[in-house]
Amino acid sequence: MIMRNDRHILMLSENKAMKGIIKGKTVLTQHTARLERRGFGVRKRDKVILHPVEAIYLFLRGDMIIKKGKKILKTPEVFKWAIRTVPEFSELYFAYEDLRERGNRISVSDRFLVGKKTFLPLSERRKFAVPELYKLRKGFDTLILAVVDEESDVTYYRIDNVDFHGRQSEEISKIKGYLVKDRVVTEESEIHTHFFYGNEKNGIVSLSLIESCYLVDKGFMDVYSSGRELSIEEIKKMGRKVEENFDRRYEVYKDLKDRRFCVKTGFKFGSDFRVYDEIKSVEDLPHSNYLVSVVDDMRLPLYEIAGAVRLAQNVRKKMIFAFKEEDENRYLQIEWIKI
Q: Whose CA is closest to 257, among 294, 327, 210, 315?
């Protein structure tokens, strides 16, 4: 008998399904060369020890019957045992099945699926803090999230810890700016045309308070209000009045600028910043390279992360999440991929 399933063919000996016997949290079956070639289980003498996910994959294909003692289990009984044995069975199973059906030789290792790459199956309902993903990523050459939605479809996202830098060069002569409520204006239009700060209309450049703080901090601008020069702390205080997360956003903005990026608001894309590797002239603007969202230790549902990533890639950008670790800004890149 030959069972066909998309990309691979499994030969069953003597027209009979293999027999699997439940032993604690695993299933024991007879070793065959075919099982070994396909990477199922762990061989122990003439037997193969199968993880519940592997056993049920074979069971649902009709390649194996599963027994508990002398009793042959029916499908509901098999699933009941598996769910009781493996707490995150659904995510593990549907990701495993999807990868197998795509022709991948894959094995189960704790909560990971391991082949040429390592996959972490997760439910779309799961919430994650980005620092958790950052720490997880450190232990692997490659780590891919296999997100299982409510219809059991699987979407894959590669995560990477990035230490990235741009190529922006800025030699700015000192300019004067004037506070106008929640922004700063200047007549020095070169700050926009040459370096892409602010927005220019009719010869007047309007700068955000974050941009203004940076320019004052670097000694590139003096800001005045009612004839008096303002300190950077006074500008920050005004920023806090209009935005509760002002200080943290400024920290990330400044870090990105110090990494030689050109940084602009990401409001139109639902992020904190859009980031360019380099701007030579506003007359010939390239597409921005990244969208950056400051998330720190917020627990985000995976559908929010997925939405941000897909939006970024739809507009040809990479999605970066920023957080703080031991007083340092860290960056995690998440990218939707095809398997």
A: 210
**Tens digit of pLDDT for each residue in 89-121?**
999 999 999 999 999 999 999 999 999 999 999
Residues 209-245: tens digit of each pLDDT: 999 999 999 999 999 999 999 999 999 999 999 998 9
Intrachain domains 2-86 and 170-244 with the same fold = yes
Section 38-45 average pLDDT: 93
Instruction: Check if 317 is active-site.
Output: yes
Residues 52, 21 contacting (CB under 8 angstroms): no
Of the residues 57, 134, 276, 331, only one is catalytic, namely 276
| CA neighbor of 274 nearest in space, from 222, 315, 232 | 315
| 18 DSSP β-pair partners | 64
Catalytic residue among 236, 317, 318, 331: 317
**pLDDT value for 79:** 94
Fold of 170-244: MutS, DNA mismatch repair protein, domain I (3.40.1170)
Could you confirm whether 287 is annotated as catalytic? yes
**Superfamily name and number for 2-86:** tRNA intron endonuclease, N-terminal domain (3.40.1170.20)
For the chain, give every domain's residue range. 2-86, 170-244
